[in-house]
């Protein structure tokens, strides 16, 4: 049985009230903010029976207002980078806000992570919805977006939906940073990672995919068996992983499948990921430099 509750968490000048929703079972507790549809905390029991918070976040609303690393937020309209902030749809070129070097990142300067979403209780969870007006951050069409978070036992599900009045790119996801050791752990080097992907997308020096789909065979990107992440990070070009792993081909049917696993042997915690999407982004927090003060840690 899932217990669902809500409480007032703060006020954002000019935007309104921010609420904190809590989903709780015996095994897992999830805290969700209406600001950015953000997962503020996700706590789970380890083999010692103790609950530990496994995601990065802030102690107060001010932290999320100032946040520039998308901690726990839903990002959009388009997660990841659009090269030079430009795309063409139905013969018309659109120019987006530039906020990451020469590119547009995670929807623009004032994207979904900085909006207050409307929340409605549902069975075992909460649904958050947002209206993005036509022209928002340069994107065409009015978009009605929603994410439904539900918790059943040890399984947290995020179901995304979007509808637009015009043809427009949409790519929603949650930007939580996980450490299965819990708050205060220095790094993830003792974690083991598995991603069931035969290929990945190489990127250029601004982290935009080059257009090539490359086999993982014989490369540091072959994670088709559990790999200790610390030594593997030393083999990856650049700062670490920030790549899309291709889970299926265009001919495959869209069906939910088990695509990834992260294990932390010391705590006994395991994170399994299922999706019906064709790719998964693996990011190892390459741009957290130790300057951000968060919950019980500096990242």
Account of the protein in words:
The chain is mainly β and 299 residues long. The chain is 4% helix and 41% strand. It contains two helices and 25 strands. It has a five-stranded antiparallel beta sheet with strand order 1-2-3-4-5, with no helix packed on it. It starts with a strand and ends with a strand.
TL;DR?
With 299 residues, the chain is mainly β. 4% of the residues lie in helices and 41% in strands.
SSE layout and pairing:
Layout: E1 3-12, E2 16-24, E3 28-33, E4 38-45, E5 51-53, H1 61-66, E6 74-75, E7 81-82, E8 86-89, E9 92-95, E10 104-105, E11 118-122, E12 125-132, E13 143-152, E14 155-164, E15 173-174, E16 192-195, E17 199-200, E18 214-215, E19 227-228, H2 229-233, E20 242-246, E21 257-264, E22 269-275, E23 279-283, E24 293-294, E25 297-298
Antiparallel strand pairs: 1-2, 2-3, 3-4, 4-5, 6-15, 7-10, 8-9, 11-12, 12-13, 13-14, 16-19, 16-21, 17-18, 17-20, 20-23, 21-22, 24-25
